[in-house]
Structures are given as C-alpha cells and as structure tokens.
Amino acid sequence: MKRMELIGNRAVEKEIVCALRESIQGFYYTLLPQIPGGDEPDYQSKTGIWTNLNFLLISFLEEKDAAKAQIIIGDIKHRFPEKGIRLFFMEVA
Fold first, then answer.
1. Of 25, 37, 61, 86, which cross-links 66 as Cys (Cβ 3.0–4.6 Å)?
2. pLDDT digits (tens, 9 = 90+) for 42-93
3. How far, in Å, CA of 27 to CA of 61, rounded?
4. What is the pTM (predicted TM-score) of this model?
5. pLDDT by residue (tens digit) across 25-47?
6. 3-state class of 40 per DSSP?
7. Number of folded domains in the chain?
8. Which residues have C-beta within 8 Å of that of residue 86, sequence separation ≥ 6?
9. What pLDDT does 49 receive?
C-alpha cells in the first residue's frame, strides 16, 4: 500500500479529483482545499489576496491504483505544466 500526496493549483483541483474518482474504484481521499503558496519572498499582493491558492490531496492506494494515479496525474501535468502539480508516494508499513 502507498500513501499518495498530491499538491497543485486550485485551478486544476476539480479535473484531478474527477479523473481519479472515475479511474480508481473506491477512491477515498482527504482534501485540504485552500493552501496559500508562493515562490517569491513577497508572494502576497498588497490587496491582501493570496496570489496562489493550492490544494493538497492525500489518499492511501493499493500498488495497482497508485500506478493508475501516476499515469493520470502525468497526463494532467503534461496538459497544465504551469499549475505546479506535484505527486509523491510513500510506502505504508
């Protein structure tokens, strides 16, 4: 079993979640929907609005489903290279 952590821009959240739910039977996950982020020292605008809102999705998957998820996310990353999509897997004991 693997723990999957996926981070990305909120703009692609719905596309990612829908693709995973359609492809992986019984896909259960935890979603943290509004995580402020930035890659520059002054990443918050003068208006108080975050310049970049991300999401974090965590799920525990069997090996075969983790492989499916990696293919799905790879395709979405290819279509949206500027959305900061990052995928991590960790072995679960």
1. 61
2. 555 555 544 578 999 999 999 999 999 999 999 999 999 989 899 999 999 8
3. 8
4. 0.83
5. 999 999 998 887 765 555 555 55
6. coil
7. 1
8. 6, 7, 8
9. 47
Q: Residue 3: which residues within 8 A CB-CB, separation 6 or more?
A: 58, 59, 60, 89, 90, 91, 92
Asked if the structure places residue 49 within a domain, the reply is no
Structure tokens that stand for 54 in this block: 């991300």
In a domain, 93, yes or no: yes
Task: Print the domain residue range for 81.
Answer: 1-9+18-38+64-93
Check: CB of residue 9 under 8 Å from CB of residue 52: yes
CA distance 5 to 90: 8
Q: Tell me how far apart the alpha carbons of residues 80 and 19 are, in angstroms, rounded to a whole number.
A: 14
Residue 22 within any structural domain of the chain: yes
Please name every residue paired with 16 in a beta bridge, in sequence order, or none if there are none.
none
